[in-house]
């Protein structure tokens, strides 16, 4: 057990550019979706093919030097492939963290110091530590998050 503070980082939209991959798959799909996000339930590759959000991986590597970091994600219930795809994605891009992936729809149940998330859904808004709401006015970039969590001495 470590004495480091615990940081949970959401995967989709925070580390993984899911919107970029969703737009790519929609542009190549022969199926028309009334709600484009329904593709997430149909796709067998969306999570595998998604690219990292710029600067996310570098920031996570830096945070790992100071904190006990876990990757946190909610997987769509109707896409059974997504659960394993997320694990494969983490092992590919963050190989030191693939055993630190937590899939849950109840982020409020986790005990930790910080949660970096782009939304308040699935319990993120009720997280008992500090919710760092990334890509908002207060934390518009990954750099703003690392500057906040790793103050320069």
From TrEMBL:
SUPFAM superfamilies: HAD-like
Pfam families, A to Z: NT5C (PF06941)
Family, per entry: Belongs to the 5'(3')-deoxyribonucleotidase family.
PANTHER family tied to this protein: 5'(3')-DEOXYRIBONUCLEOTIDASE (PTHR16504)
Protein name (Swiss-Prot/TrEMBL): Uncharacterized protein
Organism annotation: Faecalibacter bovis
């Amino acid at each position: 057990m470590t004495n480091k503070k615990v940081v949970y980082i959401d995967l989709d939209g925070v580390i993984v550019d899911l919107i970029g991959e969703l737009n790519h798959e929609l542009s190549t799909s022969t199926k028309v979706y009334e709600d484009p996000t329904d593709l997430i339930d149909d796709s067998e590759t969306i999570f595998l093919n998604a690219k990292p959000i710029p600067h996310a991986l570098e920031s996570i590597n830096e945070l790992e030097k100071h904190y006990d970091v876990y990757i946190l994600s909610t997987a769509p219930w109707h896409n059974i492939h997504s659960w394993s795809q997320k694990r494969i994605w983490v092992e590919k891009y963050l190989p030191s963290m693939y055993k630190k992936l937590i899939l849950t729809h109840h982020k409020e149940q986790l005990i930790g110091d910080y949660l970096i998330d782009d939304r308040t859904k699935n319990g993120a808004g009720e997280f008992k530590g500090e919710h760092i709401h990334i890509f908002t006015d207060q934390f518009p970039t990954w750099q703003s998050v690392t500057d906040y969590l790793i103050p320069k001495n």
